[in-house]
C-alpha cells in the first residue's frame, strides 16, 4: 500500500495545471516536469520503447510474453490538472482507518470534508484516504490513473508468469482543457483498443458520453432615440431574449439527468446595437442531438425573417458519443466488466454526462472506454481518494491484460 501512496504523492506534489488560454502543447511549461519524470520512471520499471514527443505525449510498450497472436491493448491517462482550482503546493494528507466522521482539512479556514455533504465518504469507512490540506485540489484526476497504470505494469513485469499480449501505455497533457487527445498519435500508439483510467468511484465503467456542440449567436441591433423608436428600433437584447425563449425551458442542465439532453446558455452579453449568446448542446442520442442543432438553426431563420437578417449563428460540433464506435467491438467492455468482477469490484455502468479523451480517441480509430481511477470530488479542495480503490484499479488493469490474453 505504501508503494502506491508514495508513487501517487510523488506525482500529486508536482504542479501540472493546464491553461485553456494557451495555444501551445503542453499548454503550460510546468507539465514537462512531471512528463520527464514519468518517462524516466517507465524506463526504470522496465518498459520498452519509452518515448516522449515534442508535445509531451508519453508512450511506452510492455512486450507480450506469449507466442500466440493476441490483440494489443492500451491504458491511457492524463497528467495535467484542472485550471478550475489551484494545483500549486499540493500537500496531501493521509487519513488511516477512516472513522466515518468529519475530516478537518484546514482548521484555520474551517474547511471540513464531511459525510453530511459528501455521503460517498461512508463507503470508505475503515479505509485509508488521501485528501488535500484544503487549499488546493489533489490531482487524483488523473494522477491516480497514472499511478495505477505504472504500478500495474510494474506488477506484470515482476510477475512474468501472468500471460499477456503487448500492452501500450499513453500519458497525455491537457486533458482538462479538452485537448488531451488532439495530438495523440493513434497510429504510433499501435493498440487495437485502449482504456482511459480516468473515471471516479470504484467500479465505474463508461462507454457512453454526450454528443456535443457549441453555438455562438451574434445579433445586430439598430439604436434609435427611445422616444421616437416606434417601428424603427431593433433591440439586440430583445432578440437575444426571444432566441432564448424559443429553447425548451425544461431542457437545461439544472433540470436534466441520466440520458436527458439539454441546451445550456452560458454566456450573454448585450447592448441595443449588439448582443451575443453562447450556448452548448448536449445529448447522448445522435438524432436528438441533430434535432437540437436544427432547432437553433430554425430559430435563427425565423427571427431573421421577422426582423430582417439581424442574426448569425455559428454552430460547431465538439465531440460525439463513443458508443457508436464501441458497440461494434463490445467485447472490450465485456472484458473490463469481467475483470472487475474477477477481482471483486461491482461494475457501475452509466452514461457520462460529459466527454472524455476516450470519446475523441474512439473517433480517431482507437475505441476507448473509461474505467475508474477511484477518486471523488474532482477539481476542487474536497477531492479525495481511498487507497484501497487505487489498489483495486491496479488489479483490474492487470486482470484486463490477463483476460485479453486468455480469451483469444
Ligand atoms: Zn481526468
Can you walk me through this structure?
Keywords: Aminopeptidase, Hydrolase, Protease. It comes from Meishania litoralis. This is Peptidase T. The longest helix is centred in the C-terminal third of the chain and has 22 residues, at 286-307. The model has no long low-confidence stretch (mean pLDDT 96). With 408 residues, the protein is α+β, with helices and mostly antiparallel strands. The strands form four sheets. The protein has an eight-stranded mixed β-sheet with strand order 1-2-8-3-9-16-10-15, with helices on one face. Helix 1 packs across helix 3 (140-158) and helix 3 (140-158) packs across helix 10. The protein is built from ten helices and 17 strands. The two termini are 33 Å apart. It folds into two domains: 2-208 and 322-407, Zn peptidases (Aminopeptidase); 211-318, Alpha-Beta Plaits, CATH 3.30.70. The structure holds zinc ion. Residues 78, 141-142, 175, 198 line the site of zinc ion. Zinc ion (ZN) binds next to helix 3.
Amino acid at each position: 500500500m505504501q508503494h502506491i501512496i508514495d508513487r501517487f504523492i510523488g506525482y500529486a506534489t508536482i504542479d501540472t495545471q493546464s491553461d485553456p488560454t494557451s495555444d501551445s502543447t503542453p499548454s503550460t511549461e510546468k507539465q514537462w516536469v512531471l512528463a520527464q519524470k514519468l518517462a524516466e520512471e517507465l524506463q526504470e520499471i522496465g518498459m520498452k520503447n519509452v518515448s516522449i514527443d515534442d508535445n509531451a505525449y508519453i508512450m511506452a510498450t510492455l512486450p507480450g510474453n506469449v507466442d500466440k497472436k493476441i490483440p494489443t491493448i492500451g491504458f491511457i491517462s492524463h497528467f495535467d490538472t484542472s485550471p478550475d482550482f489551484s494545483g500549486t503546493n499540493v500537500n496531501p494528507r493521509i487519513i488511516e482507518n477512516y472513522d466515518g466522521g468529519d475530516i478537518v482539512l484546514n482548521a484555520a479556514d474551517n474547511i471540513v470534508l464531511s459525510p453530511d455533504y459528501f455521503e460517498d465518504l461512508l463507503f470508505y469507512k475503515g479505509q485509508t484516504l488521501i485528501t488535500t490540506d484544503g487549499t488546493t485540489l489533489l490531482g487524483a484526476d488523473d494522477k491516480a490513473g497514472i499511478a495505477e497504470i505504472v504500478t500495474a505494469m510494474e506488477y506484470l513485469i515482476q510477475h512474468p508468469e501472468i500471460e499477456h499480449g503487448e500492452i501500450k501505455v499513453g500519458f497525455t497533457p491537457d486533458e482538462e482543457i479538452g485537448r488531451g487527445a488532439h495530438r495523440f498519435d493513434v497510429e504510433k500508439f499501435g493498440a487495437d483498443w485502449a482504456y482511459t483510467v480516468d473515471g471516479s468511484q470504484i467500479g465505474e465503467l463508461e462507454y457512453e458520453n454526450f454528443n456535443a456542440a457549441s453555438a455562438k449567436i451574434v445579433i445586430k441591433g439598430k439604436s434609435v432615440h427611445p422616444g421616437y423608436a416606434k417601428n424603427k428600433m431593433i433591440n439586440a437584447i430583445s432578440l437575444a431574449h426571444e432566441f432564448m425563449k424559443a429553447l425548451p425551458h425544461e431542457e437545461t442542465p439544472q433540470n436534466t439527468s441520466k440520458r436527458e439532453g439539454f441546451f445550456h446558455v452560458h454566456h450573454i452579453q448585450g447592448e441595443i446595437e449588439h448582443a451575443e449568446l453562447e450556448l452548448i448542446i448536449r445529448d447522448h442520442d445522435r438524432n436528438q442531438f441533430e434535432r437540437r442543432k436544427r432547432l437553433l438553426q430554425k430559430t435563427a431563420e425565423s427571427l431573421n425573417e421577422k426582423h430582417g437578417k439581424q442574426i448569425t449563428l455559428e454552430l460547431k460540433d465538439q465531440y460525439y458519443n463513443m458508443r457508436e464506435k464501441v458497440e461494434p467491438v463490445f467485447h472490450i467492455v465485456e472484458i473490463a466488466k469481467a475483470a472487475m468482477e474477477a477481482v471483486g469490484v461491482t461494475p457501475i455502468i452509466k452514461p457520462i454526462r460529459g466527454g472524455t479523451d476516450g470519446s475523441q480517441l474512439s473517433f480517431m480509430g482507437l475505441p476507448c472506454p473509461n474505467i475508474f481511477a477511484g477518486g471523488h470530488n474532482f477539481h476542487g479542495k474536497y477531492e479525495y481518494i481511498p487507497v484501497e480503490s487505487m489498489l483495486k484499479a491496479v488489479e483490474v488493469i492487470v486482470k484486463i491484460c490477463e483476460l485479453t490474453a486468455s480469451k483469444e
